[in-house]
Amino acid sequence: MSMLRSSFNLFQPIAIGCDHAGFVYKEEIVAQLKAEGFQLQDFGTHSKESVDYPDFAHPVANAVEQEEAAFGILLCGSGNGVAITANKHQHIRAAICWSVTVSKLARQHNDANIICIPGRFVSVELALEMIWKFIQTEFEGGRHAMRVDKIACV
Q1: Tens digit of pLDDT for each residue in 101-119?
Q2: Cα–Cα distance, 151 to 110 (Å, whole number)
Q3: Considering the entire predicted model, what is its pTM?
Q4: What is the DSSP string of 60-105?
Q5: What is the rounded distance in angstroms from the CA atom of residue 118 to the CA atom of residue 101?
Q6: What distance in Å separates the CA atoms of residue 106 and residue 27, rounded to the nearest whole number?
Q7: Phi/psi at 144 (nearest 5 deg)?
Q8: Most buried pick, 2, 54, 90, 113, via CB within 10 A?
C-alpha cells in the first residue's frame, strides 16, 4: 500500500466526519472545500444531537486506509476522541492540530493522513487554515520516513 506518501492524490475525495461538538465546523469546512472544487465523503454526523465519535471516526479512517479518500478530516470537542479512535487503524496517522505550524509538521515529519481538529478550542477560520496547510504540505521523507516506518505494531 502506498499510504499516500509524499503528497495526497487530490483527485480522490476527502473523507470528513465529526461528532456533535464538531458539526457546525464540519458544515462550514464542507462548504468551503466544495466551493474550491474538492469532492468529499461526508460520514456525518448530520446534526448537533449527541452522538458517539467512534461511529464517525472509524468510517473516515477506513476510507483513508483503503485509499478511497486522499486524506481525512475529523472534528470533535477536543480532537482527542477522534484521534485515539482513528489511530487504532494500522495505516492511519491521525494528528491533533491546534495551529497552522502543527498541521504543517504533522504532514512534513509524521506523514499524517488524518487531521483532527479540536472544535471547542480553535476558530473555524483557524481550522480552515490548518486544513489548507495540511493539504499543501508534503511529507519530507528521509530520516522522518525511517521513524514513521517504526510506528506500526506488527
Answers
A1: 999 999 999 999 999 999 9
A2: 10
A3: 0.92
A4: HHHHHHTTSSS-EEEEESSSHHHHHHHTTSTT--EEE-SSHHHHHH
A5: 15
A6: 24
A7: -70, -35
A8: 113
Ramachandran class of 37: left when φ > 0, alpha when ψ lies in -120 to 50, beta otherwise: left
pLDDT in tens, 27-46: 999 999 999 999 999 999 99
Residue 6's CB is within 10 A of a number of other CB atoms, namely 11
- What residue has cell string 493539504? 135
Residues known to be catalytic? 76, 109
Residue 115 has φ and ψ, to the nearest 5°, of -100, 130
User: What H or E segment, with its residue span, contains residue 114?
Assistant: strand 114-118
Instruction: For residue 46, give the nearest of 29, 23, 79, 63 by alpha carbon.
Output: 23
Residue 107 φ/ψ, nearest 5 degrees: -80, -50
What would you report as the CA-atom Rg of the chain, rounded to the nearest whole angstrom? Answer: 14
Burial (0-12, 13-18, 19+ Cβ within 10 Å), 50: exposed
Euclidean distance between CA atoms 67 and 81, whole angstroms: 23
DSSP SS3 for 40: strand
